[in-house]
Amino acid sequence: MNEGTSFIGQEAAWQEWLSAIRSERMHHAWLLAGAKGLGKRAFARAAAAELVRNDEKPVHSELHPDIHILQHLPANDDEAKKKAEGKAYQTKRNITVDQVREMIRRLATKPTMGARRAIVIDPADDMEKGAVNALLKALEEPPAGTYFLLVTHQPGRLLPTIRSRCRVLRFSALAPDQIEAMIQREAPEADAASRAAAIAAAQGAPGVALDIVEHDLGAMHSLMMRILRNGDADFVLRGGLADEMGARPARDRQLAALELARAVLVQELREAPRARQLRIIEAHGVLTKLGTQAPTYNFDAGLLIMEIGGLLASVAMPREAAR
What we know:
With 323 residues, the chain is an alpha/beta fold. The chain contains 14 helices and five strands.
C-alpha cells in the first residue's frame, strides 16, 4: 500500500479498489462514502497513488503530476502564507467552480507519466452549485484514463445525477475493540478518561476518536453527558465546559468539541423516546451548521462552548426550560 498507509477496518474497501484497478473495465468515477472520521481522506490519496503507479516505486499523492486534489483553499492571502509556512490556516467554505474548471482544463492534455490520471475531490459535499454542474459535465464525458474519487460524508447532499454516475465504495464504522487498539497504537500516552470518552463518542470513527484523545476531551465528554442526563438549570456544568475549553483554545480544539457534542447527541438519539428524538435531531442540526461555519468564522470560544452546552441542555432529561 502506498504512502505507508493502512486502513483499520477498511481492508475490504481497499481490496475492492485493487481488484478494480486490475480489471479490464474499471469504472471511471467512485464515491468514497461513509461517516466523517473513517479514514476516507487518507484512503483517497493512497488509492490515487496506487492507480497511477506504474512501477515498484512508491508514489506521493501530493506531488505526482497525474494526481489532482481539489480541496478547500486558504481563505485569503494571509492564510495561504500560513499554509506555505506549515502553520494552521483557515479555509474557504466551499470547493469553488474555478477549481473545478481549472481541473477540467487540465484534462485536455494526456497524463504526464503513464496512462492514468486521478482526480480527488475532498469533500465533494462542499462543492459550490456551479462546481457541481461543471463536474457533472466531466463525469458525463470523461477523458480516457481519467478516474474520479469523490470523498463524501453525506452522499444525499450530492445531485442524483452525480451519484448515478459513480460506483460507491462504502466505509464501515469500526468496532469498539478496533478503536481501542488504534488509540493504543496511535496515542499510547492517552489517559483512561480520554480513551473511554473516545471509544464511547466516536461511533466507530477513528478520526473522531483521535481528535478526542489528542485534545484531551475526556472531562468535557463527562460534562456533556451530565448535561444530557440532568440539564443545567444553574449553568454550573456549562461553566465547567468553558473552563475545559480554555480561554484561547486553538481552532482545532473548538472543532473537536463540536464533533464531540454531535457524537454524544447521536449516541443519545438511539435510546431516546420519539418526542425527545425530535429535539435531539433539531439540536444536532444546529451543531452541524456551527461545524460548517467554525473553520472560517471567527467565533468567540467562550460563547461557542456555551452555545454547545445550551443545545445539550435543551434536550436534557427532563427538558430544561427555555431561557
